[in-house]
């Protein structure tokens, strides 16, 4: 890269550093000397290291003629490096600074896309979705289908985190565009399958989620992307757990935790801790489960992230119910409910009302049971999800049947069947007639 003559020597002298102190073990002293004397041009990586060690911004070293184009290359490389190393706050800040410059629309769109990735990892899906949508608008206009699919993938991820029903439409659209390319970019296809798997998880379609995750592993060498691999293991653990495959789920959970710890990915680690806690709980060990879920909440608080945190409160409510601590179960479920309402996480609002219905059953408060199920169904209407609807209608039908209200029980059992198999509406009429 062309640099301003004398700038490296000036920066080193003003920082009070020797050639060896700038070079350290990464660059030779001779290389630094050649750069200072103009006998060699530094690579972008070498210039970045020199800038870090002398405390100067990259722009300090650039010749005026390099200006906007080179600054963009440097900024983009820096944002990509920061995202890759997990410093997402710095990546977002660097992107914001770059957008304040006179960039052409394509450069601005690429930076917005990378920023959306950083904000997703910071647990700020609303900001991420806005940036991804703005980037996508440009790439659609110039018919860049690859980047359009990438941006749609980030929009789908954000929608999933916000429990927006549009998530599945966005994910499927992104995957369709990706698979229309020749050749199909396998890393992108893998990422989009992972996003689709997450959406299926929200909809409680466990088999579809597992299928998407397994396809994601099969289509690309995700071992090269440890971050994605850890998330795939976490998703597989949650889905297999819901299907009662606890031993398999435990293996996936431990693999995910190990990689999260290695990468220092705090939010992904938090979600995996919650997943492992629920796994231990459903395997019959609530005492072992609780510390994992509490650590999940602690990690969310340390990261200053709220999206998805309500689920951990509901997990603690489930732990308390398993230990017959009804007041604590109610407190945790209400805490999860309030947070989910604040964030408009409708699926989690429904889950919270169902847990509060379980609390009301334990307290023998029949009216409260009914009220919470009604509220759960209302919340699910905001975010239709067949798996969740089938599960909760069937659960309520069982409660009503135990009370002797066969007519209402049949109505909800029929709703459960319709939710699980769209198009079925009259299958249970004979059961109602003969009950």
Feature tags:
435 residues; mainly alpha; disordered C terminus; 77% helix; 0% strand; elongated
Protein described:
- With 435 residues, this protein is mainly alpha-helical.
- Among the domains are: 7-13 and 24-65, no CATH class; 367-435.
- The protein has helices spanning 7-14, 19-23, 29-37, 44-54, 67-84, 88-99, 105-121, 125-141, 145-161, 166-180, 186-202, 206-219, 226-242, 246-263, 266-282, 286-303, 309-322, 326-342, 346-362, 366-382, 386-403, 406-420, 429-434.
- Helix 13 (226-242) runs parallel beside helix 15 (266-282) and helix 16 runs antiparallel to helix 17.
- It is elongated, with a radius of gyration of 26 Å.
- The N and C termini lie far apart (82 Å).
Based on CA atoms alone, the radius of gyration comes out at: 26 Å
Please state roughly what percent of the residues sit in beta strands, choosing from under 5%, 5-15%, 15-25%, 25-35%, 35-45% or over 45%: under 5%
Number of strands: 0
Q: Unreliable segments (pLDDT under 50, ≥5 consecutive)? A: 423-435
What is the element string, with H for helices and E for strands?
HHHHHHHHHHHHHHHHHHHHHHH
Please give the count of helices.
23
Q: Report on the biggest sheet.
A: none
What's the average pLDDT?
Answer: 85
Shape: elongated
Class inferred from helices and paired strands: mainly alpha
N- to C-terminal separation?
82 Å
